[in-house]
Amino acid sequence: MMALAAALLTSLCAQDDQIVLTNAKILSVSGEPIAKGAVVVRGGKIVAVADNVVFPEAKVIDLSGKVIIPGLIDAGCMLGVAGPANEDGEEVAPQVRIVDSLDPRSPDLARARQSGVTAAFVEPGNRGVIGGVASIVRTSGPSRAAMMVRESAALKAVIGPTPAQGNFSPRGSAPSFFARRPTTRMGVAWELRKAFFDAGRGAGDDPGKAVLAQALAGKLPVRIAASRITDLETAMQIADELGLTIVFEEAQEAYKRADLLVKKNIPVLLRLSVNGTAPMYFGEQNEVRLDAFSLLIKAGVKTALLSTGDPRSEGMLPAVSFAVRGGASPAEALRAVTLTPAEILGVADRMGSLEAGKDANLVVLSGEPHDVTTRVEKVMIDGRWVFGEKTDK
Amino acid sequence: MRYLLALLLVGASPDDATVAIKGARVIPVSGPEIENATILVRAGKIEAVGKDLEIPWDARVIDGAKKVVVPGFVEAHTSRGTDRPNERLASVPFVSTFDSINPVDPFYEDALRQGITTLCVMPGNDTMIGGQGCVVRPTGVTTESMMVVRNVAMKISLRPRPGVSRMAHLAALRKELGDAAELVKEKKADADPRREAMSRLLKGLLPAHIYCPTASDVHRALDLAETYKLKAKLVLGRDGWKAAAEIAKKGVDVVLDPELEYWETDEERHDEVRRFGGASLAKAGVKFAFQTDAMPYGTGYLWYQAATSVKNGLSRAEAIRAVTLAPAEILGLGSRIGSIEKGKDANLVVLTGDPLDAQAWVDTVLIEGRVVYERAKDEKLKRVMEVKK
């Protein structure tokens, strides 16, 4: 009798917990688009994606004329980082973790989730050669623990001029932040090599070396920010020497060696620009192509799109528009902000597409995702509305 | 014989060439869209728009099949394309962007590539009385050849310089305007080239474009305009729309901040709220235009600004008007440009698709009847992407 009551209660709860979104166009990314279908959510998970069916007893939300897409994934950002994202104390700082700077109440997280971003790879900045350990988080949660998807997601490194910018030799000069190594591109590459070389000779009880040893053992991917082809080549060479698993970000000139990236199976995260000039914070001018994304996709490189980098805009959907403007198909562009970043981050079993069994992270749009006139209307993370509907806080 | 030669020469001059854009979807802005229409251009002007027009034998025909034609976009306020837009002195009414416009600045080339055919180049927002601006077309290698209207308006900024309070800024501005008004009354201003511009400003012959960085500056600008009888247009900061009712009451035209949508922090709920001002201004009946900024992304382009405003609830027609006819009227050029109508300057943009669609590219641009841009011949664009038909 008691067992029966418990069973009844469970089924009642399940009913109560169930949300059905009907009559919407569904772009599941993993499957064919459904012109008019339903997404069923229960217990924070997607339980069904199907053509319209009638659910008499469930809480039904009619989304006629709307489009449902998977939650957007920003696979390289500093969302939620309170204060500076660079630990300037050391140019090689594998022991620091971005999670310690993460603030769930940060306004940029609130902005991102209202713009449809449901998960983010949050990383240290580009000022250090090795910046620290990055995390994958949901963009909503009362605490860091509630937001966490994977705390130790990758080690951040930079190859190129950025960590050396403004530096000068410490010898004989007045103490200042800039009186430090490295001072050149080759210096940056050497600092990276040296750090791994030292760690490879035995980590001992050094926490930083322990992190590097994990990367050397292939247990922790290395995220490398490098834009120019010369830096990408240096990074690939170092990765080969040390046996690192790498992912490139800000790789604006990656299209020049798409063949090599395919051969080595290295994914790329690309920040798009529409007028042919690189974002201003990358001191040097890179040879940017407006169709870089579609060139990489056509060559077979696993390429995800980063947000447009404009902190004022709803960064990720404009990236979809600009990818399409540069010649990609709308489906390719949408995949590059959902399932592809999920695959690159190794979380595609949980997110990135609308499939039964995955986390209920989804976005309701007023129209097609690549259309600049499209609005984000509702956002759901793990089955809870975080924007557009009555939010469950 | 000499007469005939002269005639031939005139015929060959590009300004007098006859152009026909055939079979396109035309968005005239001043009226409803016309499918499968033809636009005839002669001597730099639009001669006819409509269906089933006979195409003259000597016309250069541009195939408009599957294309969309819009009036050239009008940038109502920009300080780019100049050498330093802000003077160091606080009050320099006698200077003009005529002397600092850089015709070979790639900004103009990019403007053309994005379908902008007219720009009002004004002094920047950092100088109290910043000088006079000019309306230009983004073609030509001399400032003179770019000129549409020289010294079209006076720029006044209500943004205090660093270290100066708003009270001191306003006091200084009133003093400048008051002193000039005295001189005008005593008829001492006109002969002095340094004061001539202020004299025209105070007589209402030269409009004032007043930059209001915050909504609270709007009523100050309107007060100044009333006190000194200025013909004022406002260049708003991003929250300027909050003063929509005051602006509407005075019937003043405005140019919106390039940051059309922005985030505002709701202090009570600790939440971030997305704001867009265009809808309030439209509802209040204010005439408004969009401008662009230096972002290498969307907000750098007028078509994107129009699309953004549709995303935020403005109608398509209102959005397109805010980058064509509305800015033309705000600049006092509503009878010459801003729409596709018989008798207007033939400033036309042929697009590969809908103007608000990110997939549409500018294919051909005509300014005063001359073809000034063709995507098929845009070598710079071809270097950064594969140009498809």
Structure description:
The complex is a heterodimer of chains A (393) and B (389). Chain A is α/β, with parallel strands linked by helices and 393 residues long. Chain A has two domains: 16-71 and 353-393, Urease, subunit C, domain 1 (Roll); 72-351, TIM Barrel (Alpha-Beta Barrel). Chain A is 27% helix and 23% strand. In chain A, strands 1, 2, 3, 4, 5, 14, 15 and 16 form an eight-stranded mixed β-sheet that branches. Chain A has an eight-stranded mixed β-sheet with strand order 6-7-8-9-10-11-12-13, sandwiched between helices. In chain A, α4 crosses α5 (207-216) and α4 (185-200) runs parallel beside α6. The longest helix of chain A is centred in the first third of the chain and has 16 residues, at 2-17. Chain A is globular and about 75 Å long. The relative contact order of chain A is 0.15. The model of chain A is unreliable at 1-14 and 275-283 (pLDDT under 50). Chain B folds into two domains: 2-71 and 354-384, Urease, subunit C, domain 1; 73-337, Alpha-Beta Barrel (TIM Barrel), CATH 3.20.20.140. The longest helix of chain B has 20 residues, at 166-185. Chains A and B meet through α2 and α9 of A and β13, β14 and α9 of B.
Characteristics of this structure?
heterodimer; A: 393 residues; alpha/beta; Urease, subunit C, domain 1; TIM Barrel; 8-stranded mixed β-sheet; 16 strands; disordered N terminus; B: 389 residues; 2 domains; 12 helices; 18 strands
